[in-house]
Specification:
Urate Oxidase; nine-stranded antiparallel sheet; 5 helices; globular; peroxisome; urate oxidase activity
């Protein structure tokens, strides 16, 4: 009876957690990226679910192998937005029955190791350090529903797990007080959060590959503030850190909105910016039993980091 009361309403599948490390050599200078990639497909795949028909299934192992192959041949591999678009475009172009591809890329943080040179500090050409746990993120959808020559892409990018802290210029007062309220108002506190940022570009048209193997991926000029502009990620990170550091914060909410406004104002083709800011609480230790003042903000110097529970503040700012 169960098959008579339900239908397949949506289906998407692919490969997750494809780990890619790529070295690009330019003489003695080596460039590296490390990615975690997810690639998912939609299209005429219904019968693989409803009729056990595998003839419409591009094996997830093939999707993994295509990811590695494009990491080898793509001239765009060092730029995660472009690599994700290249991979998604190839997938929808290669398979007639696949109409949408969804690719997410998480880029791990590697920076060149600074060394002493003849003219002072300089970057080492092929030695790197993981200098932070934050990651650069990209999420791409390439839609071929209107035809393989009418590709449209939607792109979001951002940052995850960017841990920050400041020891003053953060307050939280004048909030709702009722019988459930135990939190004390404070005009100076530690503010710490692990920032997740996602900003979304206006949809773009993608040129269809013209080579026989649909492996080429030409890109247009780097229109300022668009997905093709390689300075956008740096500007978004800079804006996030500068606002966090310099804003005399009345609340996480107010600081969050100021960050999002700046990202939209600095990048003409960013349509929205979203943040998720979980509070990382640092609670002053009560030492009054020893006759030591450590609770008044101006005297608080020893704190207990609290992992949970934590506040979670989220919001999206959208271009008018």
């Amino acid at each position: 009876m169960s098959h008579e009361i339900s239908v397949l309403s949506h289906a998407r599948y692919g490969k997750d957690k494809v780990r890619v490390f790529r070295v690009v050599r330019e003489g003695k200078w080596h460039h590296i990226v490390e990615y975690n990639v997810q690639a998912l497909l939609e299209g005429d795949i219904r019968t693989s679910y409803t009729e056990a028909d595998n003839s419409v299934v591009v094996a997830t192992d093939s999707i993994k192998n295509i990811t590695y192959y494009l990491a080898k041949i793509s001239p765009h591999v060092l730029i995660p937005e472009r690599f994700a678009l290249h991979l998604a475009t190839h997938l929808v172009s290669k398979y007639a029955h696949i109409h949408k591809a969804f690719v997410t890329v998480e880029q791990l943080r590697w920076s060149r190791i600074p060394i002493s040179g003849e003219q002072g500090p300089e970057d080492h050409p092929h030695a790197f350090i993981r200098d932070g746990d934050d990651k650069r993120t990209v999420s791409v959808e390439v839609d071929a529903s209107k035809g393989k020559d009418k590709l449209v892409a939607s792109v979001s990018a951002g940052i995850s797990d960017l841990l920050v802290l400041k020891t003053t210029e953060s307050a939280f007062t004048n909030f709702v007080r009722d019988k459930y309220t135990t939190l004390k108002e404070v005009d100076d506190r530690i503010l710490s959060t692990s920032i997740d940022l996602s900003y979304t570009f206006a949809p773009i048209e993608i040129a269809a590959p013209t080579d026989a193997d649909v492996e080429e991926f030409p890109i247009p000029a780097e229109l300022p503030g668009s997905v093709w502009d390689i300075t956008v990620p740096r500007k978004a990170r800079k804006a996030t850190l500068e606002i966090f550091a310099t804003d005399n914060s009345a609340s996480v909410q107010a600081t969050l909105f100021t960050m999002a406004q700046r990202i939209i104002s600095e990048n003409a083709h960013v349509q929205s910016a979203s943040y998720a800011l979980p509070n990382k609480h640092y609670i002053p230790v009560d030492m009054s039993y020893l006759g030591i003042e450590n609770l008044v903000p101006s005297k608080a110097e020893v704190f207990m980091p609290i992992a949970a529970p934590s506040g979670l503040i989220t919001a999206t700012a959208t271009r008018k």
